Amino acid sequence: MRTLMTTLAALTIIVVVSIPQQAEAKGMIFFYQTGEDLFPSGPIPAPFDKVPSLQNMKAGYKCRIFGLFWAYVARWDCMPVAFISAASRKFMRPNAALAKAIEQKYKGKYGGGFWKLHGRWILALIFIGSIVMGAFRKKMMGGGGGKRGGKRGRGGPGGPGGGGGGGE
Fold first, then answer.
1. DSSP 3-state assignment of 133?
2. Average pLDDT over the chain, rounded to an integer
3. Quick check: 57 and 82 in contact, CB under 8 A?
4. The pLDDT of residue 168
5. b/e 97-118 (16+ beta carbons within 10 angstroms → b)
6. Measured distance CA(75)–CA(59) in Å, rounded
7. Where are the beta strands (DSSP E) in the chain?
8. 72 - beta bridge partners?
9. Per-residue three-class SS string for 52-71
10. Statement: the pTM of the whole predicted model exceeds 0.70
11. Do the Cβ atoms of 99 and 87 come closer than 8 Å?
12. Which residue(s) pair with 32 in the sheet?
């Protein structure tokens, strides 16, 4: 439930910040992550699960990541590892046989929660949607002129701005 609330809060912030508003200079704050993260895949594969030093460990991958708004956009340089918990960030590089067993059993299986793994697609939809909304709004306003570039303050005779001829 807590991760659902965190995900909804993050999504709400992203949507609110993405809505275009009338301003001279628009900008958006981006939260990004880089570095390494551990992705749990499952229990240590047999027969290695019987090894005493691996009894309490899980199998997974350590990958270099790039993320926006806590959603991983890119993941590369992944290697199989064994670890006690992903939160502790402590892992063990397995020997060649265990690494091969992890890759065979969990090839392409990265755990980590919905937002972390699939949030990039939601961010892409929000980004594309904001571009479409901006283009639609610009079209509806007649080419994007808006309030800038108009004849503000230069009214004709009797109009605002006081121009007009002398008296009668």
1. helix
2. 77
3. yes
4. 46
5. ebbebbbebbeeebbbeebbee
6. 18
7. 32-43, 58-68, 71-83, 91-92
8. 67
9. HHHCCCEEEEEEEEEEECCE
10. no
11. no
12. 68
Q: How far apart, in Å, do the first and last CA atoms of the chain sit? A: 77
Tokens at 3, concatenated: 């991760």
Tokens encoding 122: 């939601």
Helix (H) or strand (E) holding 2: helix 2-18
Q: For residue 105, which phi and psi values (nearest 5 degrees)?
A: -80, -35
Would you say residue 52 has pLDDT above 80? yes
- Element holding 42 (H helix, E strand): strand 32-43
Percentage of the residues of the chain whose pLDDT score is greater than 70 = 67
Backbone angles phi, psi at 162, to 5 degrees: 75, 5
> What is the C-alpha to C-alpha distance for residues 130 and 69, in angstroms, rounded to an integer?
16
Residue with tokens 């590089």: 93
What one-letter code names the amino acid at 110?
Answer: Y
State the amino acid at position 6 in one-letter form. T
Query: Do 44 and 82 contact (CB within 8 A), yes or no?
Result: yes
> What phi and psi, each to the nearest 5 degrees, are found at residue 51?
-70, 125
Helix axes 2-18, 114-140, angle to 10 degrees: 20
Tokens of 53: 């030093």
Task: Give CA angle at 111 (106, 54), nearest 5°.
Answer: 60
Mean pLDDT across 11-40: 69
